[in-house]
Amino acid sequence: MPLVMPIYGTRPEAIKMAPIVAALQQSSSLDQFTTVTGQHRSMLDQVNSIFGIVPDHDLNIFAPGQTLNGILTKTIDGLDKLFSVNRPDAVVVQGDTTTSTAGAIAAFYHSIPVVHAEAGLRSGDLFSPFPEEANRKITSQIASLHLAPTSTSRANLLRENIPSADIVVTGNTVIDALFMTVDKKVPFTDPALEELAARDEKILLVTTHRRENQGEAMRGVGRALARIADAEPDLIIVVPLHKNPLVREAVIPAIEGKKNVLIVEPLPYGEFTRMLSMSHLVLTDSGGVQEEAPSLGKPVLVMRENTERPEAVDAGTVKLIGTDEDRIVAEVDQLLNVRGYYDSMANAVNPYGDGKAAARTVAAIEQMLGIGSRIADFGD
Ligand code: UD1
Ligand code: UDP
To answer: Which of 95, 97, 179, 258 has the CA that lies 20 to 30 A from 132?
Structure first.
């Protein structure tokens, strides 16, 4: 049987690859061999354990504070050695991390076909998000099969002269992962969150980590949260903080000690999706959270100047607000206090998927490997 190798290394890739790994494990026509780079360590291992994935191979490249070039070169070197002894018929990479692009380059140089999940997202600005916009464009140049989550991302690829026969619209597997998890009501590990779940409070859920926001912009986010906490004593602000020390140093000083702010460790995926469903609104610079929250009808304020995910913005559930401190405070105030405004944004929309993206992914790989026929695109 043809051997397919999913390769991933960070939290969001693990969440979005988990449904693909599960679908490959169930396939009667493909074998799979899961390889992780360990670009993230604790946050990656947390997701794998939730989805019951034990990687077949771990490059274990993690080092605190590692550079992008360090991640790239260690990944390529590790995969180069692995492909010499265990050569798959195709690799699957996901999205736009450095693990993802390094995996694609390493496979391409071994003439192994690259399957790119979540292909075709474009912000239009090479430097934002950095380095992700460049990463995904590089991967598009060398992939053999492009799995676009939406027709918008398909159109982006066609504009770049990717042949339409090599593009399949699958939906985003993040919605598969969300549907697999969100109704389970996983107990919170942190007693403060379980206690919060028992009360009927308005929750503002906040995540931030983007490299281009680190430094002064992220300190401004911290100051904005402090001002919101003071202005809205009945609002509970929950901040699951990324493991990156640069994020922690920027955000914590302004908000620590405030009694309506709960700063917690990165939440295991099941706990995070439960918190998302308990939240009143979401403030984030995350890509994945922008895709998940609309599905639950939660208004999302995105602390970025642009987005490669315009679908939920068009649907009115997501709003781009940038990172200016005063603007963040004003936008949250509007959502909490302007009558009718919250309801106009709180629409449950599912532009990113229907929970069947992993099945379409496996079918598209089978077709690429000559053992299946072309499937219908998601949304058609
Ligand atoms: C990476 C991805 C980004 C993705 C994000 C998801 C790249 C270039 N960026 O960014 O696209 O949105 O992951 O979270 O690939 N750290 C730990 N433990 C962990 C994870 C991170 O200590 O489990 C710390 C380390 O000090 C590490 C730092 O966080 O050096 C940054 O991690 P890194 O993978 O370099 O980039 P991210 O900014 O997390
Ligand atoms: N997430 C999580 N725990 C947290 C915060 C986020 O499990 O404490 C999940 C979230 O549901 C989403 C993913 O992590 O699926 C997003 O990861 P991140 O924001 O780190 O990266 P991005 O999506 O921006 O690449």
So the answer is: 179
